[in-house]
Amino acid sequence: MTWFLIVLGLLALVVVYDLVQRKHAILRNFPVIGHFRYMLETIGPELRQYIVTSNDEERPFSRDQRTWVYASAKKQNNYQGFGTDNEMELSPNYLVIKHDTLGHPGTATETDPQWRLPCAKVLGGPRGRRLAFRPDSVVNVSGMSFGSLSSAAVEAMNRGAKIAGCLHNTGEGGIAPYHLHGGDLIWQLGTGYFGARTADGGFDLAECVRKVEQHRVKAIEVKISQGAKPGLGGVLPGAKVTAEIAGIRGVPEGKTVISPSGHRTFSNVDELLDFVEEVADATGVPVGIKSAVGLPGFWVELAERMASEDRGVDYIAIDGGEGGTGAAPPSFADHVSLPFKVGFTRVYTIFAERGVHHDVVWMGAGKLGFPETALLAFCLGADMIAVAREAMMAVGCIQAQRCHTGHCPTGVATQNKWLVRGLDPTDKAARLANYVITLRKELTRLSHACGVEHPGLLRADHMEMLDDHFGGRSLRDVFGYQPGWEIPSEQDAAAVIADMQGR
């Protein structure tokens, strides 16, 4: 009886509060009951994820896609039975891989437990960088910084990158101790130059050289923008600038850190190329750029200068507008920058028309971490792909879509110590490696089905986009590619084939 009176009293207090407050009309009109509406709204993503949506509906990744990543990461059965559940004939822009009728005999690669798949080009080779190298994996981990991801997640990814033999991009937050567990790094330098930053926020070349010599930095990436929020700077509130983060980023502890929307060291293509050459000469490592795609003027000038001068970038990472981020305004995430297929092909065409596309290693990003989408990128001329959210799922992300709140339930995208403790870096490292290796395996097998040794040798004719009127066009026709644009030079092709057949 006592408990009943207590509960009744609490409900009465809630009723009074709801009737008096003026912030929520629903609560004023429907005391107590109105709270259920807000509760259901809060768990809406979970309800849709597990109860409402079909296997192919949910965004940004469907249940089928997540299931494939989870099963691959855990080395479980990632097959499906009873045929496809996709509506192939009536789905616009449905991708179809056009196999070779007689197939491919396969090579020793198919008995390699690591399914090694090196890049078809030498990164930094065309420009004669001192530390040029051929990346060992065409599948690599994209830029996600410590701060946006937890320490345990970053460590798991670096350990997993070591196991799988792939590259791990640091993201723009600097090189953290959690990046230093044996995996080779691409050090991303954003507008804040974290880790190589002067006291006034400029770029410190000497510190950059020191970090490259000290750590396993194989390449440097100058981040111009990313697909989910191009043109925006960043703000890290002072309350989040702990002693650890301050030391990693080279900023004062406890003070708000501003990442400007543009770089201080350059403001045009000419100055960008000077910066790239200065950094490459000083460090010896290849230097590339990462950018989303908007207006074409920047890319036209870059290609024309590389065609007529000795200066140039070593790789170009194109990030599609469908790419992910920890937090961004919906207007930017949904509407600013072109999606990967459109943006990549426009930039690639600009370089191919000027004959300098073979002098660049092309990297694609933006929901490419699945066999068919990765294969599409290679058919369009990509030499490597970078995966971010797919890598997050491999180490435990459940697409709770709480990245921007700091309350990621799996400890991946949070700094909450209690939540982070649930993520075991050693176990999740193995899962990241399993996912990368499985994706390389699928890419190899699909390439062989198309009659070629390596995905870098695929052509735009190897894939077709169906319309919803029982027709279809090859990627070459859709994007206006000329024959031969999308495959590497004869020298690079011969070298990678020899490498694959020699294993």
Automatic annotation (TrEMBL):
<dbReference type="InterPro" id="IPR013785">
    <property type="entry name" value="Aldolase_TIM"/>
</dbReference>
<feature type="domain" description="Glutamate synthase">
    <location>
        <begin position="137"/>
        <end position="452"/>
    </location>
</feature>
<keyword id="KW-0560">Oxidoreductase</keyword>
<comment type="similarity">
    <text>Belongs to the glutamate synthase family.</text>
</comment>
<protein>
    <submittedName>
        <fullName>FMN-binding glutamate synthase family protein</fullName>
        <ecNumber>1.4.-.-</ecNumber>
    </submittedName>
</protein>
<dbReference type="GO" id="GO:0016491">
    <property type="term" value="F:oxidoreductase activity"/>
</dbReference>
<dbReference type="InterPro" id="IPR002932">
    <property type="entry name" value="Glu_synthdom"/>
</dbReference>
<dbReference type="InterPro" id="IPR024188">
    <property type="entry name" value="GltB"/>
</dbReference>
<dbReference type="Pfam" id="PF01645">
    <property type="entry name" value="Glu_synthase"/>
</dbReference>
